[in-house]
Amino acid sequence: SQTIHQWPATLVQPVGSPLSLECTVEGTSNPNLYWYRQAAGRGLQLLFYSVGIGQISSEVPQNLSASRPQDRQFILSSKKLLLSDSGFYLCAWGLGAQPQHFGDGTRLSIL
Amino acid sequence: GDSVTQMEGPVTLSEEAFLTINCTYTATGYPSLFWYVQYPGEGLQLLLKATKADDKGSNKGFEATYRKETTSFHLEKGSVQVSDSAVYFCALSPRSGGSNYKLTFGKGTLLTVNP
Question: B101, A104: Cβ pair inside 8 Å?
């Protein structure tokens, strides 16, 4: 069966520091991968999606970036975090155009 | 822009009660509609979907019908169980071009079913 792993579960970072969140999927090949963010009091917002290695589409302009170095690995990064980057980040995978399963999420707090 | 509005929770029901969670949407064209569920301690997962008007998505005893005339996709179940306790999210995806990868979610509705 397919599983999705996302880490860390919780992260506290100072403003201006870099960020790297990692997501891996097991049990499937060539999945579509997604990064979502849920800010307080708001719904899930799509940040990036990827249909293959090295292919990244950005939905929202921001100081975050994503990379897919391997088929089942999806990384969310930032060179310098802003206070507004605080939120709950979710990785997801799917075989169609929409995600089927999400990871457990990372709670990111910027101080 | 696209948006999804779903009833605010929490919703608390007794076992075997009838469930309705309302969801309405605003979108251009004919989006695809989805319900996702997040059980306690688990990640979000797709529950059911409908891709065109009058389609009915169903799974695990849950149903939702795509109503274009009322722009709604209400989730229903005839007899809920304690194991249905979860947070339910309504979502839509545009149909056209590359945007069909984008999901717009509602804020979620917490359902608690008591024995």
Answer: no
Contact yes or no for B105 and A92 at CB 8 A: no
- pLDDT tens readout for residues B22-62: 999 999 888 999 999 999 888 889 999 999 999 999 999 99
Is residue B8 within a helix (H) or strand (E), and if so which, with residue range? none
**Side chain identity at B23, as an amino acid letter?**
C
Angle at CA B41, nearest 5°, toward B19 and A2? 100
- Catalogue the E-assigned strands of A10-103: 10-13, 19-26, 32-38, 44-52, 55-58, 64-70, 73-78, 87-94, 101-102
Lowest-pLDDT choice from A10-14, A87-91, B103-107: B103-107
Contacts of B100 in chain A (CB under 8 A): 97-98
In tens, the pLDDT along A15-49 reads 999 999 999 999 999 999 999 998 766 678 889 99
